[in-house]
Amino acid sequence: MMISLTTFSQNNNLIYLWPGKVPGELKEKQPPVIAASNNDNILRFSEVTNPALEVFLPDQANKNGSAVIVCPGGGYQILAYDLEGTEIAAWLNKLGVTAFVLQYRIPDKKEGALQDVQRAIRIVRDNSKKWNIDPNKIGVMGFSAGGSLSARASTLFNIKTYSPADITDSLSCKPSFTMLIYPAYLDQGPNLTLTPELKLSNEVSPVFIFQTEDDPYGNSALVFAAALRNSKLSVELHMLAAGGHGYGLRSGKVAAETWPVLAEKWLKSVINLR
């Protein structure tokens, strides 16, 4: 059973990505659909046809001029919207980072999802003065499939994936930095090598990766980190012995309590250097 989420259409902090027709989308624009509860305290979107960004602003006194677009995971089938979206945005706000949670198209719309994240980066860059953001400090962050999407955004920024919707699309969609937490699907090449879609160049921005050894997608992080290292690109990889997959920031899990400390230290160094 699914119900339509109507409140988001009235949310003043919600920015719809596409002013006209959503490129390649066959369905009419509708509010996100919420999946039936699994009794695990996770809010899941099961369908998105009208991609959007939800804006989360830090306290003015704490603001540091950086921004992160957060891509929740869910196998490109659902979005774990609070676990890997809004809860992450609250953490970023505490660090002084302006956060944007991306409602990218699902299910089974990988091409559309890439269009959405590219458009989202351009929109944030275009409105950087409005939010007092440095346009050179706009990063992406993703979890699981959202990590796959963030890695795609970090490597495919020179590829034109849609016809320009307006002047905003003349801007760069290259992230200034990328943060991948238990990313998936980055090792889909022959014999579990780098996913062929991912194209590395010397333009790729710094990347932070966190993973656990017992995660079924653990090889994904190793392969991508090795590819970045072999290309002499900036990468920081952390792998914990145990922790599984899909923990977000939820308390009581060692991995969930470990990655934020490491990510904060890395993020602050990248922001200060750029």
Indicate the topology:
Blueprint: E1 2-4, E2 14-16, E3 33-35, E4 44-47, E5 52-56, E6 67-71, E7 79-80, H1 82-94, E8 98-103, H2 110-126, E9 138-143, H3 145-155, E10 178-181, E11 207-212, H4 218-230, E12 235-240, H5 254-273
3D structure, described in words:
The strands form 2 sheets. Strands 2-5-8-6-9-10-11-12 form an 8-stranded mixed sheet, with helices on both faces. It is built from 5 helices and 12 strands. A hairpin with an 8-residue loop joins β3 (33-35) and β4. It has helices at 82-94, 110-126, 145-155, 218-230, 254-273; strands at 2-4, 14-16, 33-35, 44-47, 52-56, 67-71, 79-80, 98-103, 138-143, 178-181, 207-212, 235-240. The protein is of the alpha/beta class.
The radius of gyration computed from the alpha-carbon positions, rounded to a whole number of angstroms, is 17 Å
Strand content: 15-25%
Overall mean pLDDT stands at 94
Shape: globular
Number of helices: 5
Features:
single chain, about 270 residues, alpha/beta, four-stranded antiparallel β-sheet, 5 helices, disordered N terminus
Task: Describe the structure concisely.
With 274 residues, the chain is of the alpha/beta class. It has helices at 82-94, 110-126, 145-155, 218-230, 254-273; strands at 2-4, 14-16, 33-35, 44-47, 52-56, 67-71, 79-80, 98-103, 138-143, 178-181, 207-212, 235-240.
